[in-house]
Structures are given as C-alpha cells and as structure tokens.
Design goal:
single chain; mainly alpha; Tetracycline Repressor, domain 2
Length: about 200
C-alpha cells in the first residue's frame, strides 16, 4: 500500500472513531486522546491528520450525518412503493435507533449542543439538516407541492424531538409511548387534507 493510501486509511479510522464518540458522549465528552485510543492509534499522530480538535469534530459530524442518512436511505429503499415515509418513521423511532445513539442521527444526539459550537461546525450541521429535510420531503405523498417543504420540516422536527425526549426519560414504557405518539401524529398530519 502506498503511504498516501495508508495515511488516508488512518485518517478515516480517526474520523469514524470521532463520529461514534460525538454521538455517544457529545462534543465536550470527546478528547483527542480518547478518539486516538478508540481508533487504535497513539495520541502523537493526531496532528499529522488534523490542524485542531475542532477540525476533527467538523469531519466527524459530517461523517456521522452521512452515515445516518445512508441508514435512512436503506430503510426507505426497502419499502414498498408509497411506503417510504412509513419506513423512514419506523426506522427513525425504532428501539435500535433509541439504544444506539453512537450510530444514529446526529441531530437527535447533538442538536442542543451544536448551537454552542464554532460557526464552521454549525455550517456542517445546517447543511446536513437541510439534506435530512430534503430526504423526508421525497418520501411525502405530495412531494413537489408547495407545502411539502414545511411538511418535511414538521416531520423531521417531530422525529428528532421524539427521539431526544424518548432517550431522556428513564421509563421504557414512556419512551415507547412518546415514539408511538410521534409516529401517529406524523401519520395523521400527512393524511389530513390540506387547505386550498
């Protein structure tokens, strides 16, 4: 393997480790030393890959969000025609997503913390939130209609909020009820006739 290939492979290992870590422990809970250890590397090699911790966090957030989008794309791709939104909602509000923040949606895992991050990181988050809204919009029955964008933002906000609260509470029954209620609310809202 050539040196550039090895360096790129090592860089990717660091980014993947940081992407897991930020979703699991939040931005403040991620140290360079811990990420390098999780990646199976020594702390001293960090600056050969990143100019700063913040640069690593930007890449980690971008990677984590792309990974989450790929997971949701797989869920909708498997759905029967016209069932993409139902598949997306089911996957997003699933027990697996609830229990594995380290591999799930960055918005649900990091949303309230992201507002406190540097502008460059917030730009990454903003771009990825827009992509998530676009993905949701493509699953809506009235995709392309003027109200689709607002509907997608409402669905996305309901999903993220439900997951944040469902992870926050310490009662499994309440966590399930929150997610079930969010799914029902989305179904009812999408099925309701639009004025006009």
């Amino acid at each position: 393997m050539n040196p550039g290939g090895k360096k790129a492979e090592t860089h990717d290992r660091i980014v993947r480790a940081a992407a897991r870590a930020i979703r699991e422990r939040g931005y403040a809970g991620v140290s360079v030393a811990d990420v390098m250890k999780d990646a199976g590397l020594t702390h001293g090699g960090f600056y050969a890959h990143f100019a700063s911790r913040e640069a690593m966090l930007e890449e980690a957030l971008d990677h984590a969000a792309a990974e989450s989008m790929a997971n949701m794309n797989r869920a909708t791709a498997k759905a029967a025609a016209g069932q993409g939104l139902e598949a997306y909602v089911a996957a997003y509000l699933s027990d697996a997503h609830l229990d594995h923040a380290e591999s799930g949606c960055t918005t649900a895992a990091l949303g309230s913390e992201t507002r406190l991050q540097p502008p460059e990181l917030r730009k990454v988050a903003t771009r990825r939130v827009k992509e998530m809204a676009d993905m949701v919009a493509r699953q809506l029955p009235r995709w392309g209609a003027s109200e689709t964008h607002d509907d997608a933002l409402a669905v996305m906000s309901t999903l993220v909020g439900a997951m944040v609260i469902a992870r926050m509470v310490d009662e499994p029954e309440l966590s399930s009820a929150i997610r079930r209620a969010a799914a029902g609310f989305i179904r009812a809202g999408i099925a309701a006739p639009k004025p006009g």
